From TrEMBL:
Keywords associated with the record: Hydrolase, Magnesium, Metal-binding
Keyword Nucleotide-binding among UniProt keywords: no
SUPFAM superfamilies (UniProt xref): Carbohydrate phosphatase
Pfam families noted in UniProt: Inositol_P
Entry keyword Iron-sulfur: no
Entries under PANTHER family matching the protein: INOSITOL MONOPHOSPHATASE, INOSITOL-1-MONOPHOSPHATASE-RELATED
Residues making up the signal peptide according to the UniProt record: none
Name of this protein: Inositol monophosphatase family protein
Length: 269
């Protein structure tokens, strides 16, 4: 069994130091999600039918931010539910948080949801990322230049992406809350899915990307994602040796509709 890379105590923006922080922060958010009870959800529709937020989303993001504030007080923090935190003397590192990726799954007690935490520098280089899925008992992690890893039920293994010799290829995807974008996605799906044996829509972009990294999926593509949806998962897939394409960072509204892709095979144009 290959061990996880040991974080080292160095200053600045060392990816392994940031990975250590990301693990602790994501674990804090996931611990909030693990306390899920049906009565305590208090789900509210945010902006579109199916676009939900619960008290757990906010509480998990607060828990993540508390760790980041304690361990990296000069870093900028952006997230899905709370306002940006920008120190007066910013360090050049920014954290992108999705405290509960897969909120609809969480509400309906479907196990594909996670806390996602990732760090990027001012040059746009993603340095560390963790996707912690408490209901799956899985922790995916990566540090730039140090590979991607999965800890599951006490076992740890390095991730190397899909097996190119494996048959029955699976494509992961998702669909927008915006009905116009969703109609375009439906129309494009037959051509997109043609090289694959089947398609999966699991409801969490972060976990979809991680499952390309671990070889459960052969490719993933989705339009209209926010940065926090893919921040950690895209780095984890990349460090597993998977080709990843992201929208420009930072992206304007039009560029955000560019597809995020992670593929062990060549996707059709």
């Amino acid at each position: 069994m290959s061990p996880l890379p040991d974080p080292v105590a160095v200053s600045g923006a060392d990816p392994l130091e940031l990975l250590d922080v990301a693990r602790e922060a994501a674990a804090a958010g996931a611990a909030v999600l693990a306390r899920r009870t049906f009565e305590g959800l208090n789900a509210v529709n945010k902006s579109a039918d199916g676009d939900w937020v619960t008290e757990f989303d906010t509480a998990a993001e607060q828990a993540v931010r508390e760790v980041l504030a304690r361990r990296r007080p000069q870093d900028t923090v952006t997230g899905e539910e709370l306002e940006d935190s920008v120190p007066v003397h910013a360090s050049g590192i920014r954290w992108s948080i999705d405290p509960l990726d897969g909120t609809t799954n969480f509400i309906r007690n479907i196990v594909y949801y996670a806390t996602s935490v990732a760090a990027v520098n001012d040059d746009g280089d993603w340095l560390a990322g963790v996707v912690h899925a408490p209901a799956l008992v899985r922790v995916y992690s990566a540090a730039r230049g140090h590979g991607a890893w999965l800890a599951e039920h006490g076992n740890v293994r390095q991730l190397t992406g899909p097996d190119p010799e494996q048959g029955g290829r699976l494509l992961g995807t998702g669909f927008s809350y915006d009905s116009g974008v969703r109609d375009e996605q439906y129309a494009a799906l037959p051509a997109l899915a043609a090289p694959f044996a089947d398609v999966r829509r699991l409801g969490s972009a972060a976990l979809d990307l991680c499952m390309v990294a671990d070889g459960s999926l052969d490719a993933y593509i989705e339009r209209g994602l926010n940065e926090y949806d893919y921040a950690a998962g895209a780095l984890i897939a990349e460090e597993a040796g998977v080709r990843v394409q992201r929208p420009p960072q930072p992206a304007n509204d039009a560029e955000r509709l560019d597809a995020v892709t992670a593929a062990g095979i060549v996707l059709p144009e």
